[in-house]
């Protein structure tokens, strides 16, 4: 599988088995700043629903988006799905994974390479995978998870003297 085929339309017969729809989002307060990820994984039949949120420390928003993608690919791989549809409101991430945009940032290039490795592993196991760009309004739950991770981490951060 090439990076471009990761985002292309499904081709050939659809395999039988678990079908996952995964919404991902990364959030950073500052660029860079404290960052979190949100991943919502659902089976197409509605019987499986997992929501994940995780604080990832200081990162840019684009790094957080890639960290969400990597987390989603690792979690999905544990379930041995036949089909994965990943949906993100990050046009940059989606277009880069599809091979439509170049990856210029060295930091993003490392994360991109990790994502392609995971995509190739899933493909080699017979999984059809696509990455789709969606509007922010369709990605609210993943966004809320990413921000929840940030809120929880920042509420636990020690306050400096003089702050209330």
Describe the structure in your own words.
The protein is α/β, with parallel strands linked by helices. The protein has five helices and five strands; from the N terminus they run αβββαβααβα. The protein has helices spanning 3-7, 61-77, 91-97, 106-124, 140-156; strands spanning 19-28, 33-43, 49-59, 83-88, 128-133. Strands 3-2-1-4-5 form a five-stranded mixed β-sheet, with helices on both faces. Strand 1 and strand 2 form a beta hairpin. Helix 2 (61-77) packs parallel to helix 4. It is globular, with a radius of gyration of 16 Å. It starts with a helix and ends in an 8-residue tail after the last helix.
Which descriptors would you attach to this protein?
164 residues, alpha/beta, five-stranded mixed beta sheet, 5 helices, 5 strands, disordered N terminus
Rg over CA atoms: 16 Å
What is the number of beta strands? 5
* Proportion of residues in β-strands: 25-35%
Given helix and strand content, the structural type is alpha/beta
Order of helices and strands: HEEEHEHHEH
Coarse shape: globular
Describe how the helices and strands are arranged:
Elements: H1 3-7, E1 19-28, E2 33-43, E3 49-59, H2 61-77, E4 83-88, H3 91-97, H4 106-124, E5 128-133, H5 140-156
Helix pairs in contact: 2-4
Summarize this, please?
The protein is α/β, with parallel strands linked by helices and 164 residues long. It contains 5 helices and 5 strands, in the order H-E-E-E-H-E-H-H-E-H.
């Amino acid at each position: 599988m090439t990076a471009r085929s990761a985002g292309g339309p499904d081709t050939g017969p659809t395999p039988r088995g678990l079908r996952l729809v995964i919404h991902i989002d990364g959030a950073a307060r500052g660029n860079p700043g404290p960052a979190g990820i949100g991943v919502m994984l659902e089976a197409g039949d509605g019987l499986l629903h997992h929501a994940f949120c995780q604080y990832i420390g200081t990162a840019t928003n684009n790094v957080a988006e890639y960290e969400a993608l990597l987390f989603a690919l690792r979690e999905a791989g544990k379930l041995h799905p036949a089909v994965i549809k990943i949906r993100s409101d990050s046009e940059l991430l989606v277009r880069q994974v599809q091979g439509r945009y170049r990856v210029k940032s060295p930091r993003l290039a490392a994360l991109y390479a990790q994502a392609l490795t995971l995509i190739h592993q899933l493909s080699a196991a017979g999984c059809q995978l696509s990455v789709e760009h969606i509007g922010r309004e369709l990605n609210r739950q993943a966004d809320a998870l990413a921000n929840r991770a940030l809120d929880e981490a920042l509420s636990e951060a020690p306050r400096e003297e003089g702050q209330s």
